[in-house]
Amino acid sequence: MEGYEMAIRILGTGSYLPDRVVTNDELAEMMDTSDEWIRTRTGIGSRHVTEGETTSDMAVRAAEAALKNAGIDAGEIDLIIVGTFTGEQLMPNMASKVQAAIGANRAVGFDLSAACSGFLFSLNTAYCFMKAGIYQKALVIGAETLSKTVDWDDRSTCVLFGDGAGAAVVGLDEGTESLFIMGSDGSKGEVLSLDARPLKTPFSMNPKEVNPWMTMNGQEVFKFAVRKVPECIEELMKKAELSVEDVDWFILHQANVRIIESVSKRLGVDSSRFPVNLDHCGNTSAASIPILLDELNRSGRMKRGDRIVLSGFGGGLSWGATYLVW
Ligand code: COA
Fold it and tell me: What are the average pLDDT values for consecutive 10-residue runs of the chain, which has 326 residues?
């Protein structure tokens, strides 16, 4: 394929949010917080919380909507990657559940755990498989049930998160090459963490206590995000030989509107090019970028040919940015 540059082409998008909406005022009836505190510190007004649907149920609904939007049959999908760290089971993985539910009989499926960078890392992984000529069409999903990971007595974390799923049907096209940057810093992993199952065997010596809830050092995460996100977008722009002025949309992981505003300021780009849906979704981790993509796609705000930078960041610590043409 020498002489051809291969680009990620997003052929269709879909998303799913549970019906139950929990407003800041409702939280203020449950704990010592207020709509004013949550809105001014985070930009969040409400979030969707599952009343029983699982991570894979939401992933399936988003996948079905994305296939319909792309006009593609599930049988044409070769690869399914679900970015998640909140599946209802560790085995089978969420991607296999989606594969069975939608009837994507030819597809191989696996999950990718990279917290809030999960969708971005999954998209880049799918791109590499396609660019290598191994698979032609992929379904990339971000799906999370954060509500089961937060301690609902801890106002400093539970107000931030929401549940949901977003999906994109992805293919390859000739055109401006898609590029990405990804990074990890495991030495800072403890600033955002969630324990897994405890080691409890007849052979385990002094097993470590397991905390069932997510823990977070909010200020450290904030500082990391406002430094690392503009840095990696600038690195990506250099690699793409573009300037931030050439980009129509910066679609950032939706963690906090103050993080998004700070990135827009540091890059010197007007905040109108940083779409936000935090106000009604909260932080849905790996699901936030594909849910936002779906909103922009369906509302017609994003047009074919628009140049886009996606950027995810979070637990790991992990971060990344991807450049693609819509
Ligand atoms: N309602 C009311 N008060 C709250 C509160 C809530 N929900 N949560 C915390 N507070 C209080 C604290 O107890 C503290 O009170 P004190 O001064 O009496 O001790 C005060 O508000 C300030 O807390 P602090 O943690 O310093 O606030 P902050 O300005 O750093 O904002 C975050 C907290 C979490 C909103 C902010 O740090 C943040 O957004 N960090 C990034 C988190 C994130 O995005 N994580 C996911 C990344 S993928």
Answer: 68 98 98 97 98 98 98 98 98 98 98 98 97 96 98 96 98 87 96 94 87 96 97 96 95 98 97 97 98 97 95 97 95
Candidates 48, 124, 253, 281; catalytic one: 253
How far is it, in rounded angstroms, from Cα 303 to Cα 264? 21
Token pair recorded at residue 294: 């779906």
283 classed as catalytic = yes
Spacing, Cα 42 to ligand 1 middle (Å): 9
CA distances from 44 to 6, 99, 246 (A): 38, 33, 29
Do 184 and 120 meet the contact criterion of CB atoms below 8 Å apart?
no
Cβ of 39 below 6 Å from ligand 1 = no
Reported as a single tens digit per residue, the pLDDT across 116-146 is 999 999 999 999 999 999 999 999 999 999 9
Tell me, in angstroms, the distance from the centre of ligand 1 to residue 210's CA. 24
Closest Cα to atom 5, ligand 1: which residue?
A: 156
* C-alpha of residue 288 to centroid of ligand 1, in Å: 20
The residue count of the chain comes to: 326
Specify the pairing of strand 163-174 against strand 307-314: unpaired
pLDDT tens for each residue of 279-293: 999 999 999 999 999
